């Protein structure tokens, strides 16, 4: 089964699938059943057949679905006969589960349904705690329950061993009936509707599904324990409702809507990871009185509905925090049902013609879409009936004028406009309707009787895409009647008066058309319920497993043969003489066209460059299209020099698709970044340009060896710099950033950055890599740059521009030094308390992995955890880390009431879980333009930014303020820092009452700091004459928030809390530098940097930059994205929006050196301009 398909049911109960990459409906296997309802998910599809029973379809896969069954054999020691199965009356069962409370014999463990099969017989698990046990697999303890050990001791009075057996789900690629309980009293009523969703609930375990159903008696049922390892679930549970339900819809997240017999809608609230069934119901009234809701469909953040009069409605303001939404918006169209799939894409089925429609123009910014477009894909058997004669007919219609009526064939998207321009008085066909998104009341449909609606629904005059402009229709009778074909058939609600008889196959009857139900390709199979020239009539559609990306090209809307069935019948009368004449005519026309075009271009000079050289090689490319995988490719870098001496380069990437050679190219003068990618198995790097940056989907390439990757990176980087004429060391006002891999990048501001009419968008900024490996970098506009490594070592920039995989000029080698970095890789051992056995490595099904990362969402064991990349090597063994926040006990354990919670280093009666941090160090050795600053290890550093108001004539020896936080939390001030001596001379310790985590100094010597407990502090009286200040002032944190970082510019103070919220300190003035209150700015922020132009001296200057945690692009989601705050000005210091730039793996950015001054004339011009918001 394809990974992304659209499911549908026709009027005869047949199930079909349509792939996003295909063009034909495929009949589902095992289609002996007749279905009424379908609800699809990414890996399966649930349905209700004609017998009102629920069936499940799970697609085949190379990875089987396996489930492990366990039972424990328990024995007690007897003085007469040793260990035996005779237990005390107060003991557990001889054969039980792990808790000992349930009787569980080997023969009593049966398969849950006929769709499972045993893989093997029962066998003893001889592994205990990762170590083998003695022969027999027994573990011993003093009593039940207790702590079990592998070794038998003198006081071991009980023992147990675990028996294991695996079962496999075998019903793949077939419809499997969901079993019911044996007790008829517990059987739910026959079902009338069902819906699948909930697989993307926040922190939901991967593979879990929420299956909801409605019975014929109007009751709502929930299927328990449905997940990928258990696709059938376990049982049905009744959920009380305030009325009789008719239909139900569950979105991928936490939206659940139900329609009632009275026409109202119920919305389930309180759905979350711990309570997937929700907690309460809320009632939503229908759009109008007496016009109740008959059908509803929920998505991620949208809800669509159909009322009794077949009108389609869109629910505004729907999200996880407000699942009920705010108001209804009427949409153009009349449907029997609608369905919301992945990415909130929408499908529907027309009322009369029973055609499946797709909602075009649905984007995250416009969830309601723009227009309905019919899917005219034929069944898979239809494409074999169009032969060479039909192809010649199409060619003859284009090149010759001998065949009459050729213009009546079904056009493609490119020539549909010319066909639509020919009015046919004897025909009446539908026209494409678009929603008037500017009308707050929505748009209603036009009809010949009314002549138009009061809300003026917009109607396209041309049915083909991209042809003509949309105009307002004063009335349907005033419009010219346009012929329409299945290839361009849009949706309409105009009531057609023509009879719905089947068309004649004669040539004379070809000019006549029928109703919408007779349009479309028709199957010719004798075993099908459809006759010749009859379309598929649909009853239900489900897009829960159909991923349609915004802007993707689908093949669903054009007839692939190029001819309608009626035109295909016309091809039977074509004689061989006509075919030969057409071929001769086509050849003559092509010959004349070639001669004519060559004559027109003879006076042009040959496009031959003066100098061209090419480097080729073999790499691997991460395929853009699904399925995403590494593909072997050939790459060629072509660099050429023009007549004027300019240099440019193009990178060609050649690959194979279905034994067909294809390629794409990248202009290196458009490349914005070349980034090494963090990978445990491959030497790979990513290539960004503005388009790829917006998509969040770079070109990923992998080399066979580290040396090959470094060579390609060096060559491509050098070519990019040559194309952009960027050479030498970065300017003092460059923007610095660091990726999560530790690579350092700089972006050069334009010399007239503030003089541009439109500032350069972030996605067009060029980032070049500098040598070295760091975790953070801070700089100021006088050329002083400091960095901190992962091992808290401080480094100072030497002025070079090479090192590592970055090759600079020979003159920069004197400033390149060897640099090393050490980081610790941490994993967590998690345990849960068991009343029988105490703390054990067996948790609940909803618990985190017993060996995981800090979040518990990823499984990380000692054996499977590798260094961050192949450039790193282990330098220690695993050890218990006792320095984690919150403290530990003597064994390194931290305790809490549940996962996750606040951990502490001591055990209480309410602590049911515990964890222990294991760490292992790895080391990287590289080179770069950095010198170590010894001997204090640092956790944070801040350099005073150059104020725009600073005098220009200051000497290079003037002192520069630099503050830092040590790895122990001490506040330090560096003395003797200047342009001539960027490393400074000595540290000055600043007394504090508690350890600190972050510090920042502003352009006017304002020093702000954040303690490890999340509180903020301000250092008073700091000046060049008093570099240490005098005392700390405590600043209250935002309510119920713990701050983690602070950044100070010229006048503004921004802070970041542990939840990713960005805060602005309001009320900061020279007379009251502490400010008055915190104002929330944004969420989803990982790091913030405020430059000296934070509020700007005029409009259009932006100096608040962040690293966003998650940014959704058109093709993917990126974590760690460089963003610039737009609209920051004195009247609006918090800004207005974000301009998203390079992203995917960025951890740190510093714009504190970007203090470019602009001329007064330019400032006057830009004062009248609005800020550019991208």
TrEMBL record:
Keywords: Autophagy, Cytoplasmic vesicle, Lipid-binding, Lysosome, Membrane, Repeat. GO terms for molecular function: lipid binding. Pfam families: Hyd_WA, Pex24p, Tectonin. One of its GO terms (cellular component) is lysosomal membrane. CDD domains: PH1_TECPR1. GO terms for biological process: autophagy. It is found in: Cytoplasmic vesicle, Autophagosome membrane; Lysosome membrane. Residues 404-483 are annotated as: Disordered. Residues 613-723 form the PH domain. Its main location: membrane. Residues 64-125, 137-170, 820-881, 892-925 form the Peroxin/Ferlin domain. It comes from the Eukaryota. Tethering factor involved in autophagy. Involved in autophagosome maturation by promoting the autophagosome fusion with lysosomes: acts by associating with both the ATG5-ATG12 conjugate and phosphatidylinositol-3-phosphate (PtdIns(3)P) present at the surface of autophagosomes. Also involved in selective autophagy against bacterial pathogens, by being required for phagophore/preautophagosomal structure biogenesis and maturation. Belongs to the TECPR1 family. This is Tectonin beta-propeller repeat-containing protein 1. The gene is Tecpr1.
């Amino acid at each position: 089964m394809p990974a992304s398909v659209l499911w549908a049911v026709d009027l005869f109960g047949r199930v079909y699938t349509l792939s996003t990459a295909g063009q034909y409906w495929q009949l589902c296997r095992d289609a002996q059943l007749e279905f009424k309802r379908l609800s699809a998910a990414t890996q399966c599809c649930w349905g209700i057949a004609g017998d009102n029973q629920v069936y499940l379809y799970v697609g085949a896969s190379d990875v089987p679905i396996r489930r492990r069954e366990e039972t424990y054999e328990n024995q007690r020691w007897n003085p007469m006969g040793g260990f035996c199965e005779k237990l005390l009356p107060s003991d557990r069962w001889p054969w039980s589960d792990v808790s000992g409370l349930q009787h569980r014999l080997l023969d009593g463990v049966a398969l849950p349904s006929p769709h499972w099969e045993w893989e093997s017989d029962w066998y003893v698990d001889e592994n205990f705690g990762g170590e083998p046990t003695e022969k027999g697999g027994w573990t011993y303890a003093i009593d039940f329950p207790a702590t079990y050990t592998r070794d038998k001791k003198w006081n071991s009075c009980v023992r147990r061993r675990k028996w294991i057996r695996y079962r496999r789900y075998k019903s793949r690629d077939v419809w499997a009936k969901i079993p019911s309980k044996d007790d008829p009293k517990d059987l739910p009523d026959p079902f009338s509707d069902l819906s699948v969703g909930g697989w993307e609930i926040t922190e939901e375990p991967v593979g879990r599904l929420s299956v909801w159903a409605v019975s014929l008696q109007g009751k709502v049922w929930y299927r328990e324990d449905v997940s990928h390892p258990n696709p059938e679930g376990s049982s049905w549970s009744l959920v009380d409702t305030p009325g009789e339900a008719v239909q139900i819809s569950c979105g991928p997240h936490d939206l659940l809507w139900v329609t009632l017999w009275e026409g109202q809608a119920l919305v389930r609230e309180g759905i979350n990871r711990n309570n997937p069934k929700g907690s309460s119901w809320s009632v939503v009234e229908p759009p109008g009185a007496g016009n109740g809701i008959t059908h509803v469909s929920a998505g991620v953040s949208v809800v669509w509905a159909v009322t009794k009069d077949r009108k389609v409605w869109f629910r505004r303001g729907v999200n996880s925090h407000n699942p009920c939404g705010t108001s209804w918006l009427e949409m153009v169209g009349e449907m029997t049902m609608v369905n919301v799939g992945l990415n909130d894409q929408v499908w529907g089925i027309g009322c009369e013609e029973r055609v499946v429609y797709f909602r075009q123009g649905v984007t995250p910014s416009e969830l309601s879409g723009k227009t309905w477009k019919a899917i005219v894909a034929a069944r898979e058997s239809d494409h074999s009936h169009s032969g060479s004669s039909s192809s010649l007919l199409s060619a003859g219609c284009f090149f010759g004028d001998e065949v009459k009526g050729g213009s009546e064939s079904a056009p493609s998207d490119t020539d549909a406009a010319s066909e639509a321009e020919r009015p046919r008085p004897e025909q009446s066909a539908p026209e494409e309707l678009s929603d008037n998104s500017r009308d707050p009341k929505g748009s209603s449909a036009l009809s010949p009787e009314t002549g138009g609606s009061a809300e003026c629904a917009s109607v396209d005059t041309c049915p083909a895409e991209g042809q003509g402009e949309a105009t307002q229709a004063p009335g349907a009778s005033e419009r010219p009647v346009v012929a329409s074909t299945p290839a361009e058939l849009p949706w309409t609600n105009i009531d057609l008066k023509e009879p719905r008889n089947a068309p004649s196959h004669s040539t004379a009857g070809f000019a006549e058309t029928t109703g919408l139900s007779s349009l479309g390709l028709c199957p010719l199979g004798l075993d099908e319920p459809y006759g010749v020239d009859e379309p598929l009539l649909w009853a239900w559609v489900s897009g829960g497993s159909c991923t349609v990306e915004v802007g993707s090209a689908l093949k669903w809307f054009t007839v692939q043969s190029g001819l309608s069935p009626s035109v295909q019948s016309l091809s039977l009368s074509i004689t061989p003489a006509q075919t030969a004449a057409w071929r001769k005519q086509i050849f003559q026309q092509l010959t004349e066209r070639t001669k004519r075009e060559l004559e027109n271009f003879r006076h042009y000079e040959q496009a031959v460059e003066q100098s061209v050289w090419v480097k080729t090689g073999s790499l691997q490319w991460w395929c853009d299209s699904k399925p995403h995988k590494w593909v072997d490719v050939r790459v060629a870098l072509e660099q050429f020099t023009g007549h004027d001496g300019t240099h440019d380069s193009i990178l060609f990437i050649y690959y194979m698709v279905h034994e067909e050679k294809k390629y794409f190219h990248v202009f290196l003068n458009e490349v914005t970044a070349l980034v090494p990618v963090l990978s445990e198995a491959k030497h790979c790097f990513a290539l960004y340009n503005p388009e790829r940056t917006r998509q969040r989907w770079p070109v990923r390439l992998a080399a066979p060896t580290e040396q090959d990757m470094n060579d390609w990176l060096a060559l491509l980087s050098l070519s990019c710099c040559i194309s952009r004429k960027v050479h030498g060391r970065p300017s003092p006002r460059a923007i610095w950033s660091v990726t999560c891999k530790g690579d350092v990048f700089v972006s050069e501001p334009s010399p007239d950055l503030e003089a541009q009419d439109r500032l350069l968008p972030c996605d067009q900024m060029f980032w070049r890599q500098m040598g070295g490996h760091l975790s953070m970098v801070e700089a100021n506009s006088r050329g002083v740059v400091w960095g901190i490594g992962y091992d808290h070592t401080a480094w100072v920039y030497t002025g070079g521009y090479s090192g590592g995989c970055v090759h600079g000029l020979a003159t920069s080698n004197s400033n390149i030094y060897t640099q090393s970095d050490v980081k610790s890789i941490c994993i967590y051992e998690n345990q849960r308390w068991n009343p029988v056995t105490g703390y054990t490595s067996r948790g609940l099904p909803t618990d985190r992995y017993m060996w995981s990362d800090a979040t518990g969402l990823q499984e990380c064991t000692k054996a499977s955890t590798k260094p961050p990349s192949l450039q790193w090597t282990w330098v220690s063994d695993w050890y218990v880390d006792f320095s984690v926040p919150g403290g530990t006990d003597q064994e390194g354990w931290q305790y809490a009431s549940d996962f996750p919670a606040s951990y502490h280093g001591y055990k209480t009666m309410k602590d049911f879980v515990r964890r222990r941090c294991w760490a292992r160090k790895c080391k990287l050795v590289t080179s770069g333009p950095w010198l170590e600053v010894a001997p204090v290890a640092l956790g944070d550093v801040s350099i005073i930014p150059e104020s725009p108001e600073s005098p220009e004539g200051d000497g290079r020896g003037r002192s520069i303020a630099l503050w830092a936080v040590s790895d122990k939390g001490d506040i330090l001030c560096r003395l003797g820092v200047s342009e001539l001596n960027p490393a400074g001379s000595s540290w000055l310790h600043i007394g504090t009452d508690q350890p600190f985590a972050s510090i920042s100094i502003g352009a006017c010597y304002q020093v702000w700091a954040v303690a490890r407990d999340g509180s903020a502090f301000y250092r008073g009286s700091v000046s060049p004459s008093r570099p240490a200040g005098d005392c700390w002032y405590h600043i209250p944190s935002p309510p119920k928030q713990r701050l983690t970082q602070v950044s100070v510019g010229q006048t503004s103070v921004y802070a970041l809390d542990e939840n990713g919220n960005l805060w602005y300190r309001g009320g900061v003035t020279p007379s009251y530098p502490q400010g008055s209150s915190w104002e929330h700015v944004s969420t989803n922020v990982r790091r913030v940097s405020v430059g000296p132009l934070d509020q700007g001296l005029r409009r259009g200057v932006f100096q608040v930059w962040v690293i966003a945690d998650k940014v959704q692009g058109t093709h993917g989601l990126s974590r760690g994205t460089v963003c610039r705050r737009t609209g920051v000005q004195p009247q609006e210091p918090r800004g207005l929006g974000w301009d998203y730039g390079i992203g995917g793996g960025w951890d740190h950015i510093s714009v504190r050196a970007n203090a470019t001054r602009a001329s007064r004339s330019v400032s006057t011009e830009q004062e009248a301009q609005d800020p550019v918001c991208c």
